[in-house]
Amino acid sequence: MKKFGRILMIVLVAAAFIGTFVYLFQRSRPKEVRYQELTPEMGTIAKSTVVTGKIQPRDEVNVKAQISGIVAELYKQAGDQVKENEVIAKLKVIPEMSQLSSAQSRVRLSEVNLKQAQTNYEREKKLFDQQLVSAEAFEQVAQQLKQAQEEYAASKESLEIVRDGVSSSNKSGSSTLVRSSVSGLILDIPVKVGNTVINSNTFNDGTTIATVADMDDLIFDGNIDETEVGRLHLGLPVIITVGALQDLHFDAALEYIAPKATESGGTNLFEIKATVKVPSDVTIRSGYSANAEIELQRVENVLMIPESALQFEGEDTFVYVLKADGTYENRPVETGLSDGVNIEIKSGLSLEDKVRGPQII
Predict the structure, then answer these.
(1) How many CB atoms lie within 10 A of CB 346?
(2) Gap between the Cα atoms of 138 and 106, Å rounded
(3) What are 250's strand-pairing partners?
(4) How large is the C-alpha radius of gyration of the chain?
(5) Strand, coil or helix: 331
(6) What CATH number was assigned to the domain covering residues 50-57+215-299?
(7) What is the largest CA-CA distance in the chain?
(8) In what order do the strands lie in the sheet with 81-82?
(9) How many angstroms separate the CA atoms of 236 and 252, rounded?
């Protein structure tokens, strides 16, 4: 029994030794190297670049207050549509004491002058009725009365404007009513009821009551590197992809290329703008991040192969072409435009050739 156990042990050790030897022998044998076989074909190659930017309305209008005061009422909110001259907000005027005092003084003075002119007119009319004064003298007194009446009315209107921001004779054109200067969508209303606002003057741009824009007239605004801007021209077709709407693509046309670069991180960038054509059933919000794919160059009906088949040695470019005996020969080629996947072959290959591609792993 012990003898049988020893024999079994020897057999197992021998089997393990032989198995290890066979495994190492198989591993040490060189594997056959196989390559993909590629055929040149005719096609179109287009080189494009992608520019990051954002979608925004062509024009954003800041609606400002015509007078200083306090926001009394807001009739609209961000996201509402508004028409030209439609009221957005109403202001309550806080008059300056010096202006109010001056306006009140003007009213009192004009009232005194009006009473005196009325007295002079009545006295002169009695004399004129008795034919004791000439018609010319009476007309002068009547003219003075009319002037006094106009001055009194004007002073009262001026007081109303200073005190209330609107006169009784022109309520529809009140400067306390903030109206939109354009038709469009309200993008933002940065004020609230009770906020103090100031009008535009020499030292201040004034408080913005609302920002309004026509969202049917959108543009793409981005920046392109100086190495690529030289290939652009106005009217070039652009494909817009919006980050928030990844399944949608919009056609656009290049309409502006900045004549001057701006430096960013040591790189010269040129601003570009493109008119975006958005379908009526798609909602675009101002400021959406977007990518613009711009075709820089295109060649059609040219011989091309995958760029991975190219080999390089110094400044020479070549491919391995299959010969009749199954081996490959080194053949120089002249290349053209590449899109990063396929490359144009100007000379050195024909449609009948077979080209060695990447190694099959």
Answers:
(1) 13
(2) 27
(3) 240
(4) 43
(5) strand
(6) 2.40.30.170
(7) 170
(8) 60-64, 208-213, 184-188, 81-82
(9) 9
CATH of domain 36-43+300-360: 2.40.420.20
**Burial class of residue 153, CB neighbours in 10 A (0-12, 13-18, 19+):** middle
Give, for 275, the enclosing helix (H) or strand (E): strand 267-276
Helix (H) or strand (E) holding 245: strand 245-257
For residue 62 the two structure tokens come to: 């800041």
Q: Which amino acid is it at 188?
A: D
252-272 burial code (b ≥16 CB/10 A, e <16) = bebbeeeeebeeeeeeebbbb
Q: Give the pair of three-digit tokens for residue 210.
A: 């609302």
Ramachandran area for residue 287 (φ above 0: left; ψ -120 to 50: alpha; else beta): left
Contacts of 187 (CB under 8 A, 6+ apart): 57, 60, 78, 211, 212, 213, 286
Task: Count CB atoms within 10 A of the CB of residue 312.
Answer: 8
**How many residues are present in the chain?**
361
* Cα distances (Å, whole numbers) of residue 276 to 48, 218, 220, 224, 342: 18, 6, 7, 17, 30
Identity at 160, one-letter amino acid code: E
- Distance of alpha carbon 238 from alpha carbon 53, whole angstroms: 13
Per-residue pLDDT of the chain (361 residues; tens, 9 = 90+): 556 566 667 666 666 666 666 555 556 555 566 778 888 999 999 888 999 999 999 999 999 988 888 898 999 999 999 999 999 998 887 766 666 677 777 878 888 888 888 888 888 888 878 887 788 887 888 888 888 888 887 887 777 666 666 666 555 545 678 899 999 999 999 999 989 888 877 778 889 999 999 999 999 999 999 988 988 989 999 999 998 887 788 999 999 999 999 988 888 999 999 999 888 888 889 999 999 999 888 899 999 999 888 888 888 888 888 888 888 888 899 999 888 889 999 988 989 888 888 877 6
| Total Cβ atoms within 10 A of residue 170 | 12
Q: What is the pTM of this model?
A: 0.63
